[in-house]
Amino acid sequence: MRSGALETLNSLAALRWELLSELEPREGWGSCRGKSSRRGRGVVRVERIQRSGERSVNGTGRKAISEFRFPSPPLHSRRSEEEMATPAHAKVARALASSAAALVLLWCVHFRGGLSLGSPTNKGLIFNVHPVLMLIGFIILGSEAIMSYKILPWSHDTNKMVHMLLHAVALFLGSVGIYAAFKFHNESGIANLYSLHSWIGLGTICLYGIQWLLGVTTFFFPGASPTVRRRMLPWHVRSGLVVYMLALLAAELGFLEKLTFLQANGLGRYSSEALLVNFTALLVVLLGASVVLFVTAPMHNEHTHGYSAVHKP
User: Where is the Cytochrome b561 domain (predicted)?
Assistant: First the structure.
């Protein structure tokens, strides 16, 4: 009597198991295993009874429990919404950058008369191109390029491409800004390279170009071996931050030098234009500090898409 009931239970369990196993070949379904694995919250619990009628290993005849698992999604698709969102530090940096860009444009257009690379009468319009391109192109785009690895939600290769292109655009605009300064000096009969601002500024843009060329040839095209890239990466990051801080220093010296000249020619020390220039310089300092703190601060997802070492193939 007992053996007949046991056979009936075994038959029902076997039928149930066969019905559930028919779902397994479907795309997106996993296999039955003893440990739980979750995709979101979708876990199907499956009870199975030994078909041989023998008692289980623990001798109690209890049902063995396994779970029907969904496959885990790829790593790149498991990023939470919090990781995909722009970090608060980056939002602060972007707000400072936008404010500084608006103020430098207000200064050069409203107070200084506008921008032009070929003005025959007002040579000051040629100079106005210099601070605009050096700040918006060189520093702000450079800041965005430095933060790109930690704020962009794309793959490592895509972020690397954006990082390289932003630096290229920043280098180009900075070169045009340097050209505008030399053009203004030459057409106005002013000597070149006599101030600390000009020395640090020209040296910085040269180092910027060298840094960009080394980065492209090492990490992009033609690309060095994985061993060389792993050794070069920490130095690439550190030297990039040094060049960025030199660019900030050159910008501060430039604001100070220009404002000193304007005040020597009659601009009031507490005039609206003087206060505007000082506030712009202050925003640049805060922008640089926020960028450096953001890219050097440890983050929980830094190894995945931050300044992590180059993995072995």
Answer: 92-296
